Amino acid sequence: MLFPREIHMILIFLIFIRGSVADCPTECRCDVETKTVVCSGSLLLTIPDTIPSGFDVLIIRNASIRSIPKHAFRRMERLRELYIEHCDHLAFLEKFAFKGLKKLRLVSFTSCPRLNEIPKSTFSGIGNDFGVKIHFHKTPVQRVHGGAFRHAHNIRELSISGTDLALSRHAFAAITQLDFLTVSGVTVIEPQLFTNSTRFHIVHFKELNCEIPPRAFEDLAHVHQVLIQRSRISTIATDAFSGMSTVETVELYDNHIETIAARAFASIVNLGRIRIARNNIHTLQTVESLLSQAIQTRVEENTLECGCELQWMTAHEDKRLADVNYCSASGVHRTVRNYLRQSCYRTPPTTVATTERTFAVTNHDRMRGEATNPARCALSVYTIVPFVCIMLL
């Protein structure tokens, strides 16, 4: 039997549910159990102005929206997760589109084929209290404009999987605290991507097909790891990493690299370690290609285009360098050291002097007054070139 107080609470709950469903936006479905609003269909042309109180997840799927306007979510202050999926007409994100979402923890764009740019100030002013994740997945972003994330603080993850992606100057500028940055599909990198940015945990570039120009990482500070992986890099230019400071590790792993220029790593301030491993490298220009202020430098298990110009590797301060890197398929020797020994260190042929020597052989039998045996061969003088054989019969 229910008491009046319990009946009263149930009625309030039912009224709340009914009110929430009644407030559900047009072309949307509100799920009370998951606190999720799902808006979909070709008739959905704009972002809903608001969602019912108590709901904190918004999914926009298969909609006909063409843009996300400025302050689009200003009346959704408690929004925690935002998913935009399979929106074939979405082509533009306006400035400050996500400003004011202090509770936001996830923004995800998936399979939006016309969304090919992240304009300036798109994610500026999020001001979230929690670490937010921003994902672009199966969405062919082709350019990240300068200042796209300016003053977007406390980002947990930023993942951009692009197609022919160009990173403009200042693309990741003025970000304070970004834990995991993952970018793939880049074909153009402009200098000064990270101006005034700090406190990045991991910066991960993969599947690049471009050069890394001078000062690409300038001003990036307080970083645990910069990792470049599974990429085709034409040139890592002189001063490519110049201007970085307080970095624990810079790692190049499993890449095809045409050239590492002299002093590519030389100007990183307060660097813990450089690791260059399992890459195919055509040209290490000079010993200065590996020059840095790192506490530890490990260059190992790389495949190089071997030539006698690599003789500097045998005199490098890392005594193992020529033993733990290998020649490419065109080389006939395995380690760089073996190649250099057999192909580059040529010594003059050894000559053996054959001096004519004269020995005096005395017939001691005669000296003792003994008869000479006619079968015995006695020589007073024997010339030997190059050896002597005396046979006594």
Description:
- The structure is a single chain.
- With 393 residues, this protein is mainly beta.
- The protein folds into two domains: 30-343, Ribonuclease Inhibitor (Leucine-rich repeat, LRR (right-handed beta-alpha superhelix), Alpha-Beta Horseshoe), CATH 3.80.10; 356-393, no CATH class.
- Helix content is 8%, strand content 35%.
- The protein has helices at 4-22, 336-343, 364-367; strands spanning 28-31, 36-40, 57-61, 67-68, 81-85, 92-93, 106-110, 117-118, 132-137, 143-144, 155-167, 176-189, 198-206, 209-212, 221-229, 232-236, 245-253, 256-260, 269-277, 280-284, 296-300, 303-304, 326-327, 357-360, 381-384.
- The chain has a 15-stranded mixed sheet that branches. It has a six-stranded parallel sheet with strand order 14-16-18-20-22-23, with no helix packed on it. A two-stranded parallel sheet has the order 4-6.
- The longest helix is centred in the N-terminal third of the chain and has 19 residues, at 4-22.
- It holds the Pfam family LRR_5.
Task: Reconstruct the topology from this structure.
Layout: H1 4-22, E1 28-31, E2 36-40, E3 57-61, E4 67-68, E5 81-85, E6 92-93, E7 106-110, E8 117-118, E9 132-137, E10 143-144, E11 155-167, E12 176-189, E13 198-206, E14 209-212, E15 221-229, E16 232-236, E17 245-253, E18 256-260, E19 269-277, E20 280-284, E21 296-300, E22 303-304, E23 326-327, H2 336-343, E24 357-360, H3 364-367, E25 381-384
Looking at this protein, list some descriptive labels.
single chain; 393 residues; mainly beta; Leucine-rich repeat, LRR (right-handed beta-alpha superhelix); 3 helices; 25 strands; 8% helix; elongated
